[in-house]
Amino acid sequence: MTEAQAHMHDESHDPTLDRLLRHMAWANATLIDGLAVLSDEALAAAAPRNEWHVARILDHLVNAAGGYATRLEGGSRLQAPELITSMSQLADRAARCAVFDARIRVQAALPEGTCSYAGDTDSMHARSTVISQAIHHATEHRAQIAGALATNGIDAIDLDALDLWEFADAEAAAS
Description:
Layout: H1 3-8, H2 15-35, H3 54-73, H4 90-108, E1 114-115, E2 125-126, H5 127-151, H6 164-174
Antiparallel strand pairs: 1-2
């Protein structure tokens, strides 16, 4: 167990923040699972007057999670993989997202301070700002994906099924 993981189990750990991060990871995974049953054509769905389609939004959500984790760790900026073009690539994105979300959760257990990408003092922010942005950013883009699909007649993602109430029920059922 790393020092950060040990700290996560410490009494001083913030249970509310940890719950929000667990929910974020669960909601991201549940979203990707919901997309996996759709056809490849669904990846091209976009809301009116928005050039960002489902595939681009999903890739952005996942790549940004990696960026937040890396920034919190003080690593170098990541290179994004090629844009997703097929539902067969979702397993890779789901795995990447799960790893990134777990890394953010570990970093959230560390004391407040500032963080930035390696050698980039222009990206210096409070750790709590980066963690909060990671949570809000993922929520925003899950909603954009659901909206882009619904606008195109694909009611595959129910945002109420991704809320904290559903998460609490899912977590209780798993334990």
